[in-house]
Design a protein that fits this description.
About 40% of the residues lie in helices and about 20% in strands. It is α/β, with parallel strands linked by helices. The protein has an 8-stranded mixed beta sheet, with helices on both faces. Strand 3, helix 1 and strand 4 (about 50-55) form a beta-alpha-beta unit. Helix 2 crosses helix 3.
């Protein structure tokens, strides 16, 4: 593994690179840390060049600000990583808020992408009017204003199925706790306001797949993936496990992601050099 820092507009992004083969950029959600994907990246490094990173303002990256971050900035950072360490073009996987960033990247910068796998984007604004889940981000904003990051973080975990049933790596958990004010104070407004650009997503020249975990049926963060897939005419896939199965059972999650990522990377009979 190699790690480095990429200078972008107003920040330095910490990133890690593993393996060889087609480039796969993995975008994390809340907490924005490369450590979410460490074990999955190791498992896929025999077939992909896997790039993981700490998103702007999170963990080992700089650029933290009290001002709200817009998703265009997040997408611009991802594009910079593709143009730099990823070699100019990459398949992108994003989970949760990272899936929202992936969808934004696809709409704004399709020229650098070979495909997108968006896993459980919590895009509650696509749910039907009157669905109580649409109030999730508003309710969490109010809770953060009243009780700060500890109260908001506890409630966030309570709404995420499976959290508390497994242990996070200690270093990742420590960094996550240090990122909570940035999450709820600066990143939250962008995630809360997100609506997918359906016309742009229907027009992209690469495959887009939405997906959700088998144990997350009916949750506010899994159902939007189905709705978005229907709206843009994209396939939908069921992944194993829960929202963060890549932490609870990375070997199982990596096996599922390997199949789908390989399929998207090898369209029309083209296969990586490792297989040729």
């Amino acid at each position: 593994m190699g790690n480095d820092v990429l200078e972008v507009d107003g920040a330095e992004l910490y990133y890690e690179v593993r393996g060889r083969g087609p480039a796969l950029l993995m975008i994390s959600g809340a907490g924005g840390d490369a450590g979410y994907y460490t074990d999955v990246a190791r498992a896929l490094a025999d077939a992909f060049t896997v790039i993981t990173y700490d998103r702007r303002g999170n963990s080992r990256s700089t650029g933290r600000s009290a001002d709200p971050m817009d998703l265009a900035q997040q997408a611009s950072d991802a594009r910079a990583l593709i143009e730099g360490p990823a070699g100019g073009r990459a398949l992108v996987f994003g989970n949760s808020g990272g899936a929202i960033i992936g969808l934004t990247l696809a709409a704004l910068h399709p020229d650098v992408m070979a495909g997108l796998i968006a896993h459980e984007p919590p895009a509650v604004n696509v749910l039907p009017d009157g669905d109580p889940a649409r109030a999730f981000f508003v309710d969490m904003t109010a809770l953060y204003a009243e009780g700060g990051a500890p109260a908001a973080g506890r409630r966030f975990a309570e709404t995420t199925r499976g959290e508390g049933t497994y242990r996070w790596p200690g270093d990742l958990w420590k960094r996550f706790l240090g990122n909570q004010d940035h999450l709820f104070g600066a990143e939250w407004p962008g995630f809360a306001a997100f609506r997918p650009d359906e016309a742009a997503l229907r027009a992209v020249p690469f495959p887009v797949v939405l997906g959700a975990g088998a144990e997350d049926r009916g949750t506010y963060y899994a159902l939007p993936s189905i709705e978005i897939a229907c709206r843009i005419g994209a396939p939908w896939a069921e992944f194993p496990g829960i929202h963060m199965e890549f932490l609870r059972n990375p070997a199982v999650f990596a096996a599922a992601l390997r199949v789908l990522a390989t399929q998207l990377s090898c369209r029309e009979g083209r296969v990586p050099a490792e297989w040729s």
